[in-house]
Write a structure and sequence with these properties.
Elements: H1 5-13, E1 21-27, H2 31-42, E2 45-50, E3 59-66, E4 69-76, H3 82-90, E5 93-100, H4 104-113, E6 118-127, E7 130-138, E8 144-149, E9 162-163, E10 174-183, H5 189-200, E11 203-208, E12 219-226, E13 233-240, H6 247-255, E14 259-267, H7 270-280, H8 295-299, H9 306-312, E15 315-319, E16 322-328, E17 339-346, H10 356-370
Parallel strand pairs: 1-4, 5-8, 10-13, 14-17
Antiparallel strand pairs: 1-5, 2-3, 2-9, 3-4, 6-7, 7-8, 10-14, 11-12, 12-13, 15-16, 16-17
Amino acid sequence: MPETLTQADTRTQDFLPLDGIDHLEFYVGNAYQAAHYYRLMFGFDITGYRGLETGDKEKASYVLEQGNIRFILTTALTPDHEVARHCQLHGDGVKAIAFKVKDVDASIAAVKKRGATVEQAPTSLEDEHGKFRVATIRNYGDTIFRFVDREGYGKGFAPGFIKKETPASRSAGLAAVDHIVGNVELGAMEYWANFYKKTLGFEQLAHFTDDDISTEYSALMSKVMQNGTGKIKFPINEPAEGKKKSQIEEYLDFYVGPGVQHVAMNTKDICETVRTLRSNGVRFLRVPDTYYETLADRVGKIDEDFSVLQELGILVDRDEDGYLLQVFTQPLEDRPTLFFEIIERHGSRGFGVGNFKALFVSIEEEQKRRGTL
């Protein structure tokens, strides 16, 4: 029977089936301290460990979990290790974005055929809990994509890790990774958008120009790429010409190259999540109170109390599919690089374009305080 166009299109779109984000690995200067920072400030549980006590003489790693989110924090034990060099250059940051797949070998073969640079060929790790299959390819800057097949692996994170017993955290209600935003240098956004399309089979969900995201002083451009199911979303930002240094240029200067700018995590109750995080000491960006004067007219009826949203500094935006609520932390370290976004969606698939102007003004105020605008 001849193959129909629909069947052919479906087969093409499915050349790289991804089951979601398995984990993010951060390279950090001190994994022990960072793990407890994320436990006490953001409500993550420390569930796994690898280091000297498990036979690893080069690095130590801690597994952190909350909802369906899994972070791995890794630090070097020697000064000439790759992790140490990465931290010296970039500070703490996201090294690996790991996809959950059913067949690492098929995934790597598919992306290599389409131009990916393979950094680690498919490799099997085994222990008493089973087999763990992994491989990596290059992404922007020093960031990598990791492919993980844990179908044949039992409990625990991966071979080499042991269960870690620590006091239970106070959960902040963070449920899953919503999207991961990368900053790249001027002129590179189009290259990486095409790479995601050609190599990973992603499609463009949205495109924002400097007319959409700008103030009197600075601007940026952004393309949002997503996989076939729409579950994995990667906005890519690049700076645009402006009178002063944009937040993207500031990031590129202090991270010393492209990298993950922020990780967005969703929650079912953003008000309660923000209250918890604020009480834990998390610092958030704050837009001017004038933002809330016309908010009800702009977004219409929502379930939340506008006065509560103003008190907590939560932003609202609406599109044809519904509305969303979002808030952004200040940078997580002294370098003004990586930060988190907290988001609650009520139908909207967008990214808060209606909030970009107010958010940019807020970020520029922080840049003024840092003397980097």
